[in-house]
Structures
1.
Amino acid sequence: MTRAGSTAKLTPQKRVNQFFDSVGWKPFKFQRDCWASYLAGESGLLHSATGTGKTLAVWMGPLLSWMNQNPDPEKWNSKKPPTAKVIWLTPLRALAGDTENSLRQPIEAMGLPWRLEGRTGDSKQSVKARQLRTLPTALVTTPESLTLMLTHESLLESFKTLEAVIVDEWHELLGTKRGIQTELALARLRQLNPALRTWGVSATLGNLDDALSSLLGIRPHGVRKIIRGVPKKKIRFQSILPPVIERFPWAGHIGTKMVPHVAAEVENVRSALIFANTRSQTELWYQQLLRHRSDWAGQIALHHGSLDGSVRTWVERGLRDGKLRAVVCTSSLDLGVDFTAVDLVVQIGSPKGSARLLQRAGRSGHQPDAESRLAFVPTHALELVELAAARDAILRGDLEARPLLSKPLDVLIQHAVTIAIGGGLDFDALLEEIQTTRAYENLSNEEWNWVLEFVVRGGASLTAYPEFHRVEMGEHGRYVVTDKRVIRKHRMNIGTIVSDAAMQVRFLKGGALGTVEESFLSRLKPGERFLFGGKVVELVVIRDNIAYVRRSKGVPDTVPRWMGGRMPLSSELSSAMRRRLEEASEGIYRGEEMKALRPLMELQKKWSTLPRRDELLIEQIKTREGHQIFIYPFAGRLAHEGLAAILALRLSRRCPITFTMACNDYGIVLQSHEEAPLHDAIESGLFDSETVVADILESLNATEMSKRQFRQIARIAGLIHQGLPGDRKPSRHLQASSNLFFDVFREYDPGNLLLLQSQREVLEQQLEASRLEDAMSRIVRHLIITKLPPKITPLGFPLWVDKLRERVSSESLSDRIRKMQMQLEQAAST
């Protein structure tokens, strides 16, 4: 470690160079560019591949700036640590500790007298109280904790002297309500100090200009720029292929059959991360790996966001120290944490996007110039097309854009109360400040008036209830909050932007395991076993909103199903898949994945066809269940759910007919007892895109969907509360409360802007209406090909299986599927 006293004559830049030499690195040009921009007072966004040194690129700027202002190191230790220079925002509090360690390394190596601390929901109350009196030189925190700090008027003077805010992993926040919360907090800090420098750090992002304007606002102070670092790392992809590629695949079929093959790969590396797309999948894979290699007990671990924080910390420490052979994880280890021992990433199933695949690949070889290695394990054969397409997209640099949110008023309501608590709200000044953000640049005076009316008097329908009069006019014409209970409840409610209705799981005699969504636990009976934290546990009792369990043996009855597991195929990956299928239609099979799929693709062409990029394939087949219509737009699961409902509605308008339906990322299947008038409907505009939204609202139970979406909006806007510590309300109470508000607003205040927001979010987030409209517009321009294959085709088989899952049969699902597969294979061989 370099001591300040032994290097007193070194210039700040030479100190930085010496630090890099001490760790065996040489600064990249983009890192030096970041330092120079920071020293020039500029703000910007750094975009560079994972594991290329982004942290040091943005962190050294503030350190160099301070050393330039304090050139005599002999005086450094004679002063108190400087206060409130930098706030570092991390999207996950689980990353805060590791980030703090990374930032501390150059501070200590160069002997700087900086005080670096963290502040998250897990921080001790004594630390938080001290920080409210005096902020440290640099603070690592989360968007929620920063927003909470804005409710303390005592910190405003410290924020006025703040030099910089650095937002890590900006691509994770962009296009989310937490990102909007961050935009509003940054606008407030810039209002307090217009010269504030703001830097974002990002990787794997397609829409950089949008990311920059969201980060810096639409009227930034000074020069702003995008610095592009190392665009690509060396990545070696491989597919772990099953011994036999079945011509009739179905989702999840391959699954854990690949455990021995994955274990063989893990055997040959120091350490591996095994990514699955859902928490349920990680639980199953962890158990299957241990069953296959019982000698690995204690050498492999499990990591996902619902596990207790102490468990996650233990796993992260084991990875960092190189003590764990493998960790089965979800996106909880996608970001930030630097595990240099990891030299293999295994991806179970399609990541559904090229950016996510690139992000995860970068978790291995997490050092500049090191090669990243990713092994892909399909859960069904058609996912091999997705991997081939994702590799194409990565080579072309076609990374997914993060669509932006526009004017979510629930977040704005929360922010208005935050500002009213933290020093008072001036109507015109705050409106002008809010309109500098990208999210609210088009906020109208009428909408802002409505927000203020809502927080002052509860809006048009809640005026008679004093508990919703949260904000009042104070001295000097500023709106303030004086009720201490309102202040306390609001501060407790700030984190609801990310919270789900979850229940803590604890051993009856022992510590905490983590959290599971209440909707899952409410269906269990005492004595039922489930898999959690890599252990089989048995539910004993639910008391005081805590599920108490004991260890159990045998096969679990179920695995928890967490929300957030529905990752749809991205638009960019969908387009790349259609390109690969077009090549296969012409007999071109590039790469090991497509070559392995050749028998499947050739059979698809023999019985039906493979659609080109400018074609829509429709297959009509009569089975013993009824008439089946298979349609393949390749637009992603969420858009297909809306499309299936629209097509069923439009077909039923032509004649009385009832459909059941299923969908996946590739297509949809409509099943009916009677044959549908498909050809006439196509001629009459079955795929017309002009009335998409109106037909969605008519065909689906849009009211019930809006009511569920409104529950989250009501929490964020402060209409309902999860309760104070020690008095948490169960989710059924919150559900009843939000439903009551929804019904009251619909009857007495139908123009309520939160109601309209819930409808808009259902369309855009649950049904991807804009993507659906794009798909419909594309279909109208395409050639529609209708086929009558003799049997269910390889493309249709996984849809048929998904439809079969919904039926009750005396045969087990796997037996029925296996029987159908055998019949189809026999037909294909003749």
2.
Amino acid sequence: MLIRIDHATTYTYQQAPRFIIQMLRLTPRASEGQHVRRWDIETDVDARLRRSEDAFGNIVHALYVDAPTERLTIRVNGEVETTDLAGAVRMGSERLSPLVYLRETPLTARDGDIAALAASHHQGGRLDGLHHLMRTIYTEMSFEIGATTASHTAAEALKLRRGVCQDYAHLFISAARCMGVPARYVSGHLFRSDGLSSQDAAHAWAEAYVEELGWVGFDPANGVCPTDAYVRVAVGLDYLGAAPVRGSSYGGGAEHLSVRLDVRDARAQPHQQQGQQQA
């Protein structure tokens, strides 16, 4: 599938800050499952961008704005050709040992309920247990925008039985680590099966390390393993390590964040346009 992405993040400041710095994890890496045909980052103000890689191997752009501005838009757009690998992740060499991803974080800290959830999926083969865990979370949680915030933990989301893709991913990661399985957070994009291209936010899922297979993706928010409808962008121990945009400003007042995202099948677009003209 050839997936076209147009993603804009806009900050509006009550009072123009003197200095802004943002860390952008918005650029996907090439792998066996995805080929980045084109990818651009741009802003609507005079800014400096410095590209590097973090400890997890993510492509990171440090963005600096050193002049007062009341509004900043960061836009990425590009095309990624994807291949369905049945959830398998084949990235070549990894920077870190899988054991690093057994590390607990505040957002993925286990409690008694998560330990019980993990224990109920610990029997049988590791891969079967992870699939069962994904289906259980998908079935027992309700997807509800606004029920949680970015600071809610996996344990809090489980108690609520509600949340968004970030919460589903954190819960899966916490339970998998409790089972002794290295697991990590993934941020990226999803081409929706209903064809609706306009979305409110980027997507998130999890990956778990299975010794016979390597890293395998699990999307508990949708109850499936990632297919060619997914574009993988960044990974981390939790959301904070893979957040698309994260940073701070100095000398300004309150800020408002808005996101506009369009994810579409680039190859289907000409046919849709032709059909509209004929109609």
3.
Amino acid sequence: MVLDAVFVGGGVIGLSGAWAAARAGLQVAVADPAPGRGASWVAAGLLAPVSEAHFGEEILVRLLVAAAGRWEAFAAALESASGRPVGYRRCGAVAVALDASDQAVLGQLLRFQHELGLEATRLSASECRALVPALAPGIRGGVDIPGDHQVDNRLLVEALSTACDRVGVRLVRTAVTAVERTRSGAAAGVRLRDGSGVRARAVVVAAGCESSLVAGVPAGVLPPIRPVKGHVVRLRGDPDRALLDRSVRGLVHGRPCYLVPRADGSLVVGATVEERGFDRSVQAGAVHALLDDARALVPGVDELELDECSAGLRPGSPDNGPFVGWTHMEGLAVAAGHYRNGILLAPITAEALAALLTGNQVPEALAPFAPDRAAALGAGR
């Protein structure tokens, strides 16, 4: 049997893309030895188009805003299709500064956000603590960001797996060893580690930080994706006495830190940004630094139970933007390089992949992020 498409990688991008393609009437498969257990499992689930707005990334910010606007409908459709919650919360966020230098940086970012037309409001130190009583007394000031929300990333990938199964997506829990090609060089499916294969008219590489390493593809076809390590700490609290009711993003003497509260009383603290290749080890120093910064912002974390320390590998790209679209190899598409925003960008990326595979137009906001821009960024394998 020849499928319409096979997705290499079952993280949030691969699963959401496969679900969208199947809902569009296509026969698809996802190949991954552990679907949903890569970077998507370690993520915090922040949906933060405003606080992720960085200087020089104006085009990417427009994409983030467009993606955020799709999230409520996406979450509702996924919960209905899977019968499972995804933990989508329109809770807002507050960004705070611990010292005068941090406050100056937040002020610069606020001006940039306003230039882009994003909603954010300066807060005094007392206003910050009125909004979030758990904040440390030494906070110098901050910014209210009502448009930054969250989803429980682990509930999300579990719901996507269920929704994929219910709509007929074939989940192949085996690693891909190579893309198969026709005599003319077009993609024709994938070869699996167990020696079997999946035949398909199209192959979508959505393998996260390993996307540029997929074998069977000529050099220069896949865009340059690199792993960017991030440590995350999970703390357990009392759901009846939640420490926070919204996400807190802070600068602690120049170091970024975030605290994301879940409905069950737990708290996700993250995240380091480390260029360490494919190292997934959990290091004591990184965990100590995260907890130290979290305690400086919200002292009450001392009373929470340490539940989990983990490290994941974000799929970084040269300009921090994703690569989504057809490559120069016939029948081969890519959806990778989402870096810090894979969860946020999942709905719009899924929409784009379904459009590509059915011969339709991708969303306008994703048009600047086609794989062919890799050449201008110094691509190469």
